[in-house]
């Protein structure tokens, strides 16, 4: 192949919480690099997933959902998303078509923070209208697709299902053609720029989100205190931070059952990811008001 034809660049995946950005990133890569839960706003970090093909390397930045919530942590999450956008060659907006077709009145408010920035964008913009698997009658989507093309005439719109990996090849081909001609920035076998230690914290956090009820998971954070690879075994100590005393009891659960279930699920997944036996110890610590503590949020890697 002609070396000069190789393309490489950055794609920022933007959009409201719960649109399916993380699911789509994992589907593009055919492997899990971002956590997925049914709860909105689980992505706290900018996760880079790297897709390497003989003729191109696409580096995806999965961003925390763009929304209008308050609080220091949310402010930092928003900054992360805007930062990703500023460094991208292609902007990709992911939207939950099911939500906006059922509740069109939500659309304007949800995309308000993005709307003008996208309209004024001079770089290529791709809109992935996700979750189309939820429609048997695809004609129901037409008014929403029309609304989008009027709102952002500069964008290319693609109906897709991240869950069924439907329509993703078309988007990838479209993106690839719009990246700068450049050699690959990362080795072809590297899937993410995030170290395994970080992935481990994300896996524990995903299991907390899946096991805990209501708002509680939003007030938990995970720090990997120890990550020791002994060759055939990995020893991991993780601290789960909670914001209140009562939360600690809930995370541990009756007779320690909740924490045990989180630990078992996380250990299994880490074993699959690393191909090694994993010994995982979880500790729960109270750190009151951590979501408003900038120094602590930085320590967790939530701010650059
Ligand atoms: N039916 C259907 N569900 C999907 C699809 N893509 C994602 N989901 C579901 O939507 C929910 C949110 O998916 P995520 O991938 O975590 O969404 P996100 O945009 O990364 O969410 P944030 O962390 O809030 O930014 C999960 O329950 C997914 O299983 C899809 O194509 N079809």
Automatic annotation (TrEMBL):
<feature type="region of interest" description="G2">
    <location>
        <begin position="41"/>
        <end position="45"/>
    </location>
</feature>
<dbReference type="GO" id="GO:0043024">
    <property type="term" value="F:ribosomal small subunit binding"/>
</dbReference>
<dbReference type="Pfam" id="PF07650">
    <property type="entry name" value="KH_2"/>
</dbReference>
<keyword id="KW-1003">Cell membrane</keyword>
<dbReference type="InterPro" id="IPR015946">
    <property type="entry name" value="KH_dom-like_a/b"/>
</dbReference>
<comment type="subunit">
    <text>Monomer.</text>
</comment>
<dbReference type="InterPro" id="IPR005225">
    <property type="entry name" value="Small_GTP-bd"/>
</dbReference>
<feature type="domain" description="Era-type G">
    <location>
        <begin position="7"/>
        <end position="181"/>
    </location>
</feature>
<dbReference type="InterPro" id="IPR004044">
    <property type="entry name" value="KH_dom_type_2"/>
</dbReference>
<dbReference type="InterPro" id="IPR005662">
    <property type="entry name" value="GTPase_Era-like"/>
</dbReference>
<feature type="binding site">
    <location>
        <begin position="15"/>
        <end position="22"/>
    </location>
    <ligand>
        <name>GTP</name>
    </ligand>
</feature>
<feature type="domain" description="KH type-2">
    <location>
        <begin position="204"/>
        <end position="288"/>
    </location>
</feature>
<dbReference type="GO" id="GO:0003924">
    <property type="term" value="F:GTPase activity"/>
</dbReference>
<comment type="function">
    <text>An essential GTPase that binds both GDP and GTP, with rapid nucleotide exchange. Plays a role in 16S rRNA processing and 30S ribosomal subunit biogenesis and possibly also in cell cycle regulation and energy metabolism.</text>
</comment>
<dbReference type="InterPro" id="IPR009019">
    <property type="entry name" value="KH_sf_prok-type"/>
</dbReference>
<dbReference type="InterPro" id="IPR006073">
    <property type="entry name" value="GTP-bd"/>
</dbReference>
<feature type="region of interest" description="G3">
    <location>
        <begin position="62"/>
        <end position="65"/>
    </location>
</feature>
<keyword id="KW-0342">GTP-binding</keyword>
<dbReference type="GO" id="GO:0070181">
    <property type="term" value="F:small ribosomal subunit rRNA binding"/>
</dbReference>
<dbReference type="Pfam" id="PF01926">
    <property type="entry name" value="MMR_HSR1"/>
</dbReference>
<dbReference type="GO" id="GO:0005886">
    <property type="term" value="C:plasma membrane"/>
</dbReference>
<keyword id="KW-0699">rRNA-binding</keyword>
<keyword id="KW-0547">Nucleotide-binding</keyword>
<feature type="region of interest" description="G5">
    <location>
        <begin position="160"/>
        <end position="162"/>
    </location>
</feature>
<dbReference type="InterPro" id="IPR030388">
    <property type="entry name" value="G_ERA_dom"/>
</dbReference>
<feature type="region of interest" description="G1">
    <location>
        <begin position="15"/>
        <end position="22"/>
    </location>
</feature>
<feature type="region of interest" description="G4">
    <location>
        <begin position="130"/>
        <end position="133"/>
    </location>
</feature>
<feature type="binding site">
    <location>
        <begin position="62"/>
        <end position="66"/>
    </location>
    <ligand>
        <name>GTP</name>
    </ligand>
</feature>
<keyword id="KW-0694">RNA-binding</keyword>
<dbReference type="GO" id="GO:0005829">
    <property type="term" value="C:cytosol"/>
</dbReference>
<feature type="binding site">
    <location>
        <begin position="130"/>
        <end position="133"/>
    </location>
    <ligand>
        <name>GTP</name>
    </ligand>
</feature>
<keyword id="KW-0690">Ribosome biogenesis</keyword>
<comment type="similarity">
    <text>Belongs to the TRAFAC class TrmE-Era-EngA-EngB-Septin-like GTPase superfamily. Era GTPase family.</text>
</comment>
<keyword id="KW-0472">Membrane</keyword>
<keyword id="KW-0963">Cytoplasm</keyword>
<dbReference type="InterPro" id="IPR027417">
    <property type="entry name" value="P-loop_NTPase"/>
</dbReference>
<dbReference type="GO" id="GO:0000028">
    <property type="term" value="P:ribosomal small subunit assembly"/>
</dbReference>
<dbReference type="GO" id="GO:0005525">
    <property type="term" value="F:GTP binding"/>
</dbReference>
<protein>
    <recommendedName>
        <fullName>GTPase Era</fullName>
    </recommendedName>
</protein>
């Amino acid at each position: 192949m002609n070396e000069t034809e190789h393309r490489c660049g950055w794609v920022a995946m933007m959009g409201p919480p719960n649109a399916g950005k993380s699911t789509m990133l994992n589907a593009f890569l055919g492997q899990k690099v971002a956590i997925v839960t049914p709860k909105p706003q689980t992505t706290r970090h900018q996760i880079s997933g790297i897709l390497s093909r003989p003729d191109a390397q696409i580096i995806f930045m999965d961003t925390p959902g763009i929304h209008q919530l308050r609080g220091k942590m949310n402010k930092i999450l928003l900054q992360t998303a805007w930062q990703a956008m500023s460094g991208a060659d292609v902007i990709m907006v992911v939207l939950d078509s099911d939500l906006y077709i059922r509740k069109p009145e939500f659309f304007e408010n949800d995309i308000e923070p993005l709307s003008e920035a996208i309209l004024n964008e001079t770089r290529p913009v791709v809109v992935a209208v996700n979750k189309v698997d939820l429609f048997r009658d695809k004609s129901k989507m037409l008014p929403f697709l029309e609304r989008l093309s009027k709102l952002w005439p500069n964008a290319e719109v693609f109906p897709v299902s991240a869950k069924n990996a439907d329509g993703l090849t078309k988007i990838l081909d479209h993106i690839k053609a719009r990246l700068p001609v450049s050699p690959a920035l990362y080795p072809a076998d590297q899937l993410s720029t995030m170290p395994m230690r970080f992935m481990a914290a994300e896996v524990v956090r995903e299991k907390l989100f899946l096991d805990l009820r209501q708002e509680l998971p939003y007030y938990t954070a995970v720090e990997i205190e120890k990550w020791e690879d002994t060759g055939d075994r990995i020893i991991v100590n993780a601290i789960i931070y909670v914001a209140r005393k009562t939360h600690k009891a809930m995370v541990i659960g009756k007779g320690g059952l909740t924490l045990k279930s989180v630990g078992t699920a996380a250990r299994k997944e880490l074993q699959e990811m690393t191909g090694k036996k994993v010994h995982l110890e979880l500790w729960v610590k109270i750190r009151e008001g951590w979501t408003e503590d900038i120094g602590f949020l930085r320590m967790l890697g939530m701010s650059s």
